[in-house]
Fold:
Amino acid sequence: MGIVYVALLLLGVIYAVVAAAMGWLGDLGDGDIHVDASGHLDAGHLHPISGPVIATFVTGFGAGGIVAHYLLRWPLLGGIGLATTVGLVLAGGAFLIMETIFKHTQGGAEYSVEEMVGREAEVITSIPAGGTGEIAYVVKGQREVGPARSVDGVAIGRGQVVLIEKVMGSTLHVRTRG
Structure:
């Protein structure tokens, strides 16, 4: 059984090295990474049964089994018990650490359309009469830019402060303050 433990430990380590080299660790949520219409990265939440968590379990199982088999010289059932316990503890720890990282990195990046309506913005590319320009605004402490049209269809010059009245698709419809 000792060779199985060694093989599992090596399999987990090889997975981690290859995944890091290929950039797979960025896909922690197993395909649950999306970029929304405003260009924000939304990595979602890590699922407990995902590649990195399973690889951590396999690596921990192998390491625990090696300790039980070669160092402690425990019988088969004791070795499997220790291997399973170590695997579960390490996988659970990896899951909690990655989930904590997700929460902290995603905390301020998401906002709703309702949060933009009524917000002040600055015209950074003039909005021609009946056409589209570009505005900059701050939401959740982050400066954002987006295409904008005048609600009234009038031209609005660069540098003017406007209010966002509505959002249709990715276009912000604005009105000059006044």
Observations:
- The domain at 114-176 is CATH 2.40.50.140 (OB fold (Dihydrolipoamide Acetyltransferase, E2P)).
